[in-house]
Amino acid sequence: MMMMTILSKSLASVAGALLSVSILAGAANAADKLSAVYVMSDNLGDMGFNDNAATGFARAEKDGVRTRLLQASPSDPQLWRQNLEAVSNSGEWSIIFTGPNMHDNLAAVAPQHPEQKYVFFDDQLDLPNVLSVKYAQNEGSYLAGALAAIAATDKADFPLSSGEPKIAVVAGMDLPVIQDFIVGFKQGAKTVVPNIEVQVIFIGNFNDAQKAYDLTKTAIENGANVVYNVAGPAGLGILKGAADAKKYAIGVDSDQNGLHPENVIASMLKQIGNSIYDSIGQVRDGKAEFGKLKIYGLANDGVGLVYNDALVPASVKAKIDEAKAKVVSGELKVETAFK
């Protein structure tokens, strides 16, 4: 009986030790798991930039990456900074992502955490622990401009147009990245219709959808047949303004064609989600080049144009696709606002 008791105690001790090892191993595996957090200066639900970014994190999560998206009011920059400092101090994230409006915050916080890895998209910061990601929105906008010029002047295929060579860009703010959209759009339009008139109107922010709506109606009253949305969340007002005026619009960042399917002829995709997913994969594989800038353009599916098939005939798509091939091959150089 004594021998059995001793044996039972020994087995219990071994089992307890094995359980402890198992718990510790599990904790270690959880700690080692790749993790990514997005510190936002805005909210989800814009059906554009932020929602596109979210698709990249969702794809990474399916691969086993732990993710979190920290939303914040666009009118509360103090919270943006607090969130960035909190996740940086926590030490629990393999990669911290952040984007537009966060340049000064990241410039202040990243040097304080030299071992922390950051991915800064849609902007650039030259620090050794920051991978900067930018997009050739000028290339995608070149295609959007070419399509807008065709749609404005081809009444047979685009019956809502007057046939006059008049189009418009309604944009959020006069920033270099927004000017890059505009430069490419104008070049694409003038390549197709050299005498085309391109109105450029700035809202003054990226969140006032009502003002965007009103300015779109003004652009259309001034003759614009097609309006290009370059306004982030405020752009939803642009699309509705064009639809209510029974004219055409081109969406941006995400596929917005379904929001007003009788009026939105295409969307210029700025593939934020693709770049986020790709960046996470580069970090996982040890191939991420921190301290450098990576550009995503037409050649690597960083930008593109998705058509509303119900409104854009195959013959028009073929013309735009020819232009795309010239840009990808290098035969055609798209102008940029960045020198």
Account of the protein in words:
Residues 1-31 have low confidence and may be disordered. This protein has a six-stranded parallel beta sheet with strand order 2-1-3-4-5-11, sandwiched between helices. Strands 7-6-8-9-10-12 form a six-stranded mixed beta sheet, sandwiched between helices. With 339 residues, it is α/β, with parallel strands linked by helices. α2 (49-62) links the parallel β1 and β2. It has two domains: 31-135 and 274-283 and 290-296, Response regulator (Rossmann fold), CATH 3.40.50; 137-269 and 309-329, Rossmann fold. The chain is 45% helix and 19% strand.
Provide a short characterization of the protein structure.
It comes from Mesorhizobium helmanticense. Pfam families: Bmp (PF02608). The chain has about 350 residues and is α/β, with parallel strands linked by helices.
Topology:
Blueprint: H1 2-32, E1 35-39, H2 49-62, E2 66-70, H3 77-90, E3 95-98, H4 103-109, E4 117-121, E5 130-135, H5 137-153, E6 166-171, H6 176-192, E7 197-202, H7 209-221, E8 226-230, H8 235-244, E9 248-253, E10 264-270, H9 272-284, E11 293-296, E12 303-307, H10 314-329
Parallel strand pairs: 1-2, 1-3, 3-4, 4-5, 5-11, 6-7, 6-8, 8-9, 9-10
Antiparallel strand pairs: 10-12
Helix pairs in contact: 2-9, 5-6, 5-10, 7-8
Subcellular location: Cell membrane
Signal peptide: 1-30
Organism: Mesorhizobium helmanticense
